[in-house]
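Re: that backbone. Tokens:
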């Protein structure tokens, strides 16, 4: 394996079958030049990311920060994939590693950033949030720094972003999605004067639906199914109270986010709200 590029003393780029790989190891580039062979006994990690753009950005990140942060990020991502049983978009290698490095640097400078949606993150992302807490344990173990719980929420959002789309460069969009989910839940809660059973399968399904609905709002995509006209009329008449609640949601979304909810989206929102309200009252 010949060195194509030296990123720092501990990371180099090699090329195999027209694919650039980032190879890391302590002192792997010490006294080396482009074209030299990589000492295989020094290799600790090899990264092959999904496309050239992501690969180039990751190379830039690796060249700027200590290897320990990249290794920690990789350990957290591997743990997340195992826990969730899902693939995560490769952009998380950039966003999560950069966030952890920035968060630790900021904390050591005495700056703590509050996570205004921490409570909602705990409720909406019950699989991802514990991974954020484990990440804090790993950070403390490696760097002897205990970051505040707010950071577990931010890390969870990075994981959610990698699950949902991964094309976004920042986690801000997922943060907005979480906010709109909370706003819709509040409308339903106050409209029916109920408390949700957050452990129920119906609540989980409703949250999952809201997650993808909110994603469409910020992506300006509308769900349409021309075959549901008859069903929409039936649901509208059968679940009148839930449909009236959806109309309130639709007005709120249009006023605040300039997004018009289609009849198809109203149909599925009505069904989900009817289910969760019925189960909550029961």
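Recovered sequence:
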């Amino acid at each position: 394996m010949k060195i194509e590029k030296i990123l720092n003393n501990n990371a180099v780029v090699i090329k195999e079958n027209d694919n650039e790989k980032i190879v890391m190891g302590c002192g792997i580039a010490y006294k080396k030049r482009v074209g030299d062979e990589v000492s295989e006994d020094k290799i600790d990690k090899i990264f092959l990311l999904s496309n050239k753009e992501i690969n180039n950005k990751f190379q830039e990140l690796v060249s700027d920060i200590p290897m320990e942060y990249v290794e920690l990020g990789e350990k957290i991502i591997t743990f997340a994939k195992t826990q969730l049983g899902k693939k995560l978009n490769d952009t998380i290698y950039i966003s999560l590693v950069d966030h952890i490095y920035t968060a630790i640097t900021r904390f050591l400078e005495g700056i703590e950033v509050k996570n205004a949606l921490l409570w909602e993150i705990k409720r909406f992302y019950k699989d991802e949030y514990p991974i954020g807490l484990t990440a804090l344990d790993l950070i403390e173990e490696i760097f002897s720094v205990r970051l505040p719980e707010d950071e577990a929420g931010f890390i969870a959002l990075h994981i959610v972003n990698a699950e949902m789309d991964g094309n976004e460069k920042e986690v801000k969009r997922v943060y907005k999605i979480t906010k709109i989910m909370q706003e819709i839940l509040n409308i339903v809660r106050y409209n029916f004067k109920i408390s949700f059973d957050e452990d129920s399968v119906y609540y989980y399904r409703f949250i999952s639906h809201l997650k993808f609905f909110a994603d469409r709002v910020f992506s300006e995509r509308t769900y349409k199914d021309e075959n549901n006209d008859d069903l929409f009329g039936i649901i509208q008449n059968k679940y009148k109270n839930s449909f009236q609640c959806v109309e309130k949601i639709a007005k709120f979304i249009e006023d605040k986010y300039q997004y018009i909810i289609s009849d198809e989206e109203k149909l599925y929102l009505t069904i989900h709200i009817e289910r969760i309200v019925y189960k909550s009252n029961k």
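The first strand starts at residue 3 and ends at 8. DSSP finds eleven helices and four strands in the chain.
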